[in-house]
Design brief:
This protein is an alpha/beta fold. It has ten helices and ten strands.
Length: about 260
């Protein structure tokens, strides 16, 4: 069966202060898959993610999201595209002054004309999907780190998006809670028939959730494939990253300047 692209990145270049943070990235994400972008700190993962959600515009190249060329859209057109995807931020990014229910309801109140009674029902449904029904009246300060991530995920799916982006979803969580978040990502991708794009350097998560994986290094995609293909890769960079070895193409025992050059090119 032919796969349907939902994200297409073509020859993407981004330069900051004379340095090429992204250097000719080509990437395709297909409908319904969980696509994981991995790589070391400073490799350009977050910059690439920001291009996918339209926060950054490339210096050259293009980013296509659900058939729209983001580089050509005006602000109103971009706002319409943003309604079709959700985002789980690394810190969950909940509003401390709002209850759990109010946080999840926020995109519905901002972008729809639904009655409060309908919004309340949707909020309960989304919280139930992440295992937090009945927590509507709690404040974020009353939640653990893992619970905050789950509330953030409920908010990310509040508008029934076609794509959900995840920025380091297991960062700062213990192994058990990380496993819970990974299971939620996999389950929701299947149950809701959405596309998931996950940026992470957590190798346990990568191999638990990924359908396909790409590795970014020095602003370029250096490997791409299924998790089985990545796990068996002969690429030295990939093998070092997957195994977490100190010895390999990226050498840690250098002075700080040389190590940074290894990371960011």
């Amino acid at each position: 069966m032919e796969k349907t692209p939902v994200i297409e990145i073509k020859d993407l270049v981004k330069i900051f202060d004379g340095r090429r943070v992204l250097n000719g990235v080509n990437l395709t994400v297909y409908k319904g898959e969980t696509f994981v972008l991995m790589g070391g700190s400073g490799c350009g993962k977050s910059t690439l993610l920001r291009h996918m959600i339209g926060s950054y515009k490339p210096d050259t190249g293009s980013v296509w999201l659900m058939g729209k060329n983001l580089t050509t859209l005006n602000e109103d057109q971009m706002d319409e595209v943003k309604k079709k995807f959700g985002m789980l931020f690394q810190s969950a990014a909940l509003f401390d002054s709002m209850t759990v229910g109010e946080n999840v309801a926020l995109p519905l109140r901002e972008h729809t004309k639904l009655d409060d009674s309908v919004i309340n029902i949707v909020v309960k449904m989304k919280l139930e999907l992440v295992g937090l029904r009945g927590f509507e009246n709690l404040m974020p300060s009353q939640l653990s780190g893992g619970m905050k991530k789950r509330v953030g995920l409920a908010r990310a799916i509040a508008m029934d998006p076609e794509i959900v982006f995840y920025d380091e979803p297991t960062a700062g969580l213990d192994p058990i809670v990380s496993g819970v978040i990974d299971k939620l990502i996999s389950d929701l991708t299947k149950k809701l028939s959405i596309t998931s794009v996950v940026v992470t350097h957590d190798m346990n998560s990568v191999f638990r959730i990924a359908d396909r994986i790409a590795m970014l290094h020095q602003g370029k995609i250096v490997a791409e494939g299924t998790k089985q293909e990545i796990e068996k890769s002969n690429n030295g960079l990939v093998r070092q990253f997957v195994k977490g070895d100190a010895d390999g193409p990226v050498t840690f025992f250098k002075d700080k300047g040389d190590y940074l050059k290894d990371l960011i090119g």
